[in-house]
Design a protein that fits this description.
With 462 residues, this protein is of the alpha+beta class.
């Protein structure tokens, strides 16, 4: 699925002293003029550099053709919240009778939109009046005090009025810079345009509109055959950095036309979330705005027996969509050049397996070794030891793909450094760790840590 592109760039050749001198003579400008021109050209070059954001080498070839979900309409527009010359706000309208489920960050500094969504979810996940979701990029409306709460009320109230939906059924999210007031008037000014553009076919535009440091829009879908006919599932996500989920991750919106009870939908989402979005990490930092929402419009076949064949088939397909979106977030990790799967087996418990997997996935030493294509498996031993999980050095085994690296507390007898080094050059890697203690297992996904991550985050606000 991922397109493979060359990673290295040739260094520009330095001009000779003679060439530099010739350039000065040809320019016939004063030193002051030269400084001004250099400053202007430098600023232009800097702007051009930031504008030309390279697409991740791990990105899929194109945004997928997603199934149309009856009862869902999408629109996107340019509000100018932070960015110029691109759409940065998206609106989703959900049909009357839609049931909702959601999981949200447990960060102690949750953003105002997250708190508002949680409160509305507690009051009820089903409604005959329909529902709406509005999301902006460029400003997280987090750590924004009373003004942030007022901004949420203004935006959700305006959407409710425009669409004839109670404000209590309008859910918002914001993503971007933390700590700056949200210019909500720019969003409300775009609502009429958004309403006019609402269409069942607007999902790709919506996926692009809430991107921040993302380099590609993320979408996934599936169609499930049930006794009552086909059921469609389609989802979109954004996320690239500040990814280390805690009950959710990034911003993710998934839709189905199945008719499902709200309580069953919530249980299903929470269960699958643990094996998808809660199993990825890019940089170990949990966002203030993490949200995953699942909407069932009820416009298609009903799934009433949540233990029956249809429900099991639906859940498998939903898990596939969620995992696909989670993987795309990792593939778009800031500066990422490698996609890494870490599977831990033989742990005393599933939770211990998770501790070990995430300790490896979040280790800067492991991630930089992967970026440098260095088969430094000793750093994995270190991560296992620091994880807090029960471990026995003399039972530990490590593999890179099919290559046995370590076993029984020491380097594997037939270990080949050349083979391991060659394996590390792959774009997609599998690291296996067997603790040899019990039956607990967990799989996590991460990416490498490159200088590109520093380049993106060192001047994120400038």
């Amino acid at each position: 699925m991922a397109g493979k592109k060359s990673k290295k760039k040739d260094k520009p050749e330095k001009p000779s002293k003679k060439a530099k001198k010739a350039a000065v003579v040809a320019g016939s400008a004063t030193p002051g003029d030269k400084k001004k021109k250099a400053g202007k050209s430098g600023a232009k070059a800097g702007a051009a550099k930031k504008a030309a954001k390279p697409v991740s080498p791990l990105a899929p070839a194109a945004f997928p053709d997603l199934p149309t979900v009856a009862g869902v309409e999408f629109a996107s527009a340019e509000a100018g919240v932070r960015y110029r010359g691109r759409e940065d706000v998206m609106l989703i309208r959900l049909a009357p009778g839609t049931t909702l489920a959601g999981v949200f960050t447990r960060s102690a500094t949750r953003a105002a939109p997250v708190l508002d969504c949680q409160a509305k979810m507690r009051r009820g996940r089903a409604g005959e009046s329909g529902a709406a979701i509005i999301v902006n990029a460029g400003n997280a409306n987090a750590f924004s005090g009373a003004a942030g709460v007022e901004a949420v009320a203004a935006v959700t109230g305006a959407v409710g009025e425009a669409l004839g939906i109670p404000a209590g059924r309008v859910f918002s999210a914001s993503t971007g810079v933390i700590g700056e007031p949200l210019p909500h008037d720019r969003i409300t000014a775009a609502i009429d345009t958004l309403k006019e553009k609402l269409s069942p076919d607007g999902i790709a535009g919506a996926a692009r509109a809430f991107m921040t440091t993302d380099t590609f829009p993320k979408g996934a879908g599936a169609v499930v055959q049930t006794a009552g006919g086909p059921v469609s599932i389609a989802g979109i996500a954004k996320g690239s950095g500040m990814i280390a989920p805690d009950m959710a991750t990034m911003l993710v919106y998934i839709f189905t036309d199945a008719a499902l009870p709200a309580a069953g939908l919530q249980k299903m989402l929470s269960r699958l979330n643990a094996r998808s979005f809660n199993a990825i990490t890019v940089d170990g930092d949990t966002s203030t705005s993490d949200t995953v929402m699942l909407a069932a419009t009820g416009q298609g076949p009903a799934i009433t027996d949540l233990r029956g064949k249809d429900a099991r088939a639906f859940e498998r397909a939903l898990e596939g969509v969620m995992r696909d979106l989670a993987h795309q977030v990792v593939r778009d990790g800031e500066g990422a050049t490698k996609f890494v799967e870490i599977t831990v087996t033989g742990a005393a418990s599933a939770e211990d397996a998770r501790r070990v997997a995430m300790a490896i996935a979040n280790s800067p030493l492991v991630k930089t070794a992967i970026a440098g294509e260095d088969a430094n498996w000793g750093r994995i031993v270190m991560a296992v030891g620091k994880s807090g999980a029960q471990a026995d050095r003399d039972r530990l085994a490590i593999r890179f793909g099919d290559i046995a690296v370590a076993a029984d507390g020491q380097r594997a007898e037939d270990y080949s450094e050349a083979d391991a080094a060659a394996y590390m050059k792959r774009q997609e890697l599998q690291i296996g760790v067997d603790l040899g203690i019990g039956r607990g297992r967990f799989t996590a996904w991460t990416c490498d840590l490159t200088h590109g991550y520093i380049d993106i985050n060192a001047d994120y606000r400038s």
